[in-house]
Design brief:
The complex is a heterodimer of chains A (115) and B (114).
Chain A: E1 4-7, E2 10-13, E3 19-25, E4 31-38, E5 42-51, E6 54-57, E7 64-70, E8 73-78, E9 87-94, E10 105-106, E11 110-114
Parallel strand pairs in A: 2-11
Antiparallel strand pairs in A: 1-3, 3-8, 4-5, 4-9, 5-6, 7-8, 9-10, 9-11
Chain B: E1 3-5, E2 10-14, E3 19-21, E4 24-26, E5 32-38, E6 44-50, E7 56-58, E8 64-68, E9 73-78, E10 87-95, E11 101-104, E12 108-113
Parallel strand pairs in B: 2-12
Antiparallel strand pairs in B: 1-4, 3-9, 5-6, 5-10, 7-8, 8-9, 10-11, 10-12
Classes of the chains: A mainly beta (115), B mainly beta (114).
Chain lengths: 115, 114
């Protein structure tokens, strides 16, 4: 089984609709992240969470919100979807290692289309 | 401003030829450096990483990368490319002031010709 799972894998929605993307991990990591990927722009950070009580905005948080329901679950919500939120969304997890540094492990992604 | 630059948007190489993908970064301190690969329709897979120590790091699938502090570079290399290496490659830098969230380059798309 995959260590980082995302649901749904694909979603089509309409402008103005509320949508939630979910991420679950079995790696036991404290840190979780949400990124979006747009062609030619690489991945950009939306939100990140160090633990259940610690949530922080990333580079492009406007129009998004998150919820860290448990160590293993981190959800991303679009309260009122707009077409320019059409993108590929990735969840990632990591854990700080002794000596510093950490490695992020990515889920398979959710492809979202907003009409 | 902190940034990660991958100068080549697209690269085409012949199967069996050598490969070098460039990555330059602009940060105040030595960052943590990563290369990820994304095959078509797939998620991101970690190829290799540099935290400290030996500046030449070995990764999976026969890839290696060399950290050059004087050039602020972390170029990815492979001596002989296989057709299955065709993918998008991302260089990323760990940013300490956001919990080591990754700052990604815009990617280099690799095409392998017969």
């Amino acid at each position: 089984d995959a260590d980082v799972t995302q649901t749904p894998r694909n979603r089509i929605t309409k402008t103005g609709k509320r949508i939630m993307l979910e991420c679950s991990q079995t790696k036991g990591h404290d840190r979780m992240y949400w990124y979006r990927q747009d062609p030619g722009l690489g991945l950009r950070l939306i939100y990140y969470s160090f633990d259940v009580k610690d949530i922080n905005k990333g580079e492009i948080s406007d129009g998004y919100s998150v919820s860290r329901q448990a160590q293993a679950k981190f959800s991303l919500s679009l309260e009122s979807a707009i077409p320019n939120q059409t993108a590929l969304y990735f969840c990632a997890t990591s854990d700080l290692v002794a000596g510093g540094g950490e490695t992020q492990y990515f889920g398979p992604g959710t492809r979202l289309l907003v009409l | 401003a902190q940034s990660v630059t991958q100068p080549d948007i697209h690269i085409t190489v012949s199967e069996g030829a050598s490969l070098e993908l460039r990555c330059n970064y602009s940060y105040g301190a030595t960052p943590y450096l990563f290369w990820y690969v994304q095959s078509p329709g797939q998620g991101l897979q970690l190829l290799l990483k540099y935290f400290s120590g030996d500046t030449l790091v070995q990764g999976i699938k026969g890839f290696e990368a060399e950290f050059k502090r004087s050039q602020s570079s972390f170029n990815l290399r492979k001596p002989s490319v296989h057709w299955s290496d065709a993918a998008e490659y991302f260089c990323a830098v760990g940013i300490s002031n956001s919990g080591y969230a990754l700052n990604f380059g815009k990617g280099t798309s690799l095409l392998v010709t017969p």
